[in-house]
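Before the break, one more example. Copy the sequence into your notebook; we will annotate it together after we see the structure.
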Amino acid sequence: MPYQRRVLITLLGVVGASCGILLLLSQRSAGSIAFRLMQDKVLAIAASTAPQIDGEQHEHIRQQEDEAGPDYGAIRRVLRATHDANQSSALPVTFVYTLRPSTGEGWEYVVDAAEEGPEKSHVGDPVEFREASERPRLEEARVDDAFAEDSFGTWLSAFAPIKNRQGRIVALVGVDVEARAVLAQLGQLLHGGLIALGLALLVAAAASIVLANRVTAPLKVLRTHVAAMGEGDLTTRVPVTTRDEFGDLGSEINRMAAGLQEREALKGALVRYVSSQATDAVVEEKAENETGEERRRVTVLVADIRHFTALSQSLPPDRVFAFLNEYFSTFIDIILRHRGTLDRSVGDSVTALFGAPLEDQDQERHAVEASLAMQRRLAEFRERWTLPGDLPVALDIGIHTGEALVVRVGHDRRMDFASLGETVTVVSLIKSLPQTAGAGIVVSETTAKGLRNALPLGRLGEVSVAGSDRPLALFTVDMPLPGA
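Here is what the structure looks like once it is written out:
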């Protein structure tokens, strides 16, 4: 997934989660506050109504026929006044009534302020409670701790004691409020919060896109310049316009490009020097206009720095480039002094030829002696450059002798080694074998034959070579290697 998209999704996720949690907490807090306010109000209505009722009058009401008497009418007027006085608020009183314990274990209605109709309760009608915990107690005022729902709506009830002149509690006044309007307002609050959440996400999306573009724009610039360097354009430079981490990274990339450019310039100069000297020698031996081709025995040496990737990651870029510059200049000088020719250098790898373009009967010995000299110089590098001690930095060198097709062009002063590919492939295979990684210098049997016992060798084993029916024997140079 592109980094820009990950930034966008992350920011939207953070904003959405934060707003969602805030909305949830706000909704729960608002609901809790609203419920406590409703409890306080309905309890206050019940508590203020109970002292207005005469306990002796209430005790005179015993049966349904008493509803026509003056005592029932007086109490009903008090209850009706409470009902009518609490109709204009957001929490209107729906039912106001009195109740008392019946002769059994239950409770019964006594006076109801409701008008005549199916909802009106009469004296002696049983009070139905959903649970035993909902049964009120005569000794104290109380309010329900949760809403009650039935087919008529959602209710909240409170009860307060009615006392006679002796202070004895004879009944309770009950007040029921319908909470549908308050719950509807809470629902509207939730809808408003959801709309606000949607708007916040839209704003966050727009801000995330802008922020993601600002974050990824420098990365795109860096990627473009690094890609150009990867394609060989070492003159490219990252424009450093900020003083943040991107600016620091751009400066480091520019330093890396300058170091690579310097190294390539040095390598190119050395290669041109070697090619020029070798070609001059050939031209002196051959006629200037002579052209042709011949098979030539050549020895190929390939050297790589072991664990170079880990080494380059453990050192600052400028030290890596300085190390490689000295590495190439020193090793190319060693190759030249041992009558070799630099063929190519890629990364930390050096490929050298011995026996070409000038013939050399002792090319195998010169190649092995050059590899020993390279090992000694790398040991000096380790001491002088104070390389990380936990990295076994060493040279893996493979040497193989084979034939190459040499094409000479007199007027162009050019020599083309047309068939080196197979020989280089074989020597690279020798160098990269796991069982030879600790040997330092490994030579093929063709190179060993050319040494003619000039140097001590130890047999290492055999390796299969593509295109050949016979395995190729391998040998190690039995001489102490510096740092081994």
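The chain has ten helices and 14 strands. The two ends are 46 Å apart (CA to CA). Try to locate both features in your own notes.
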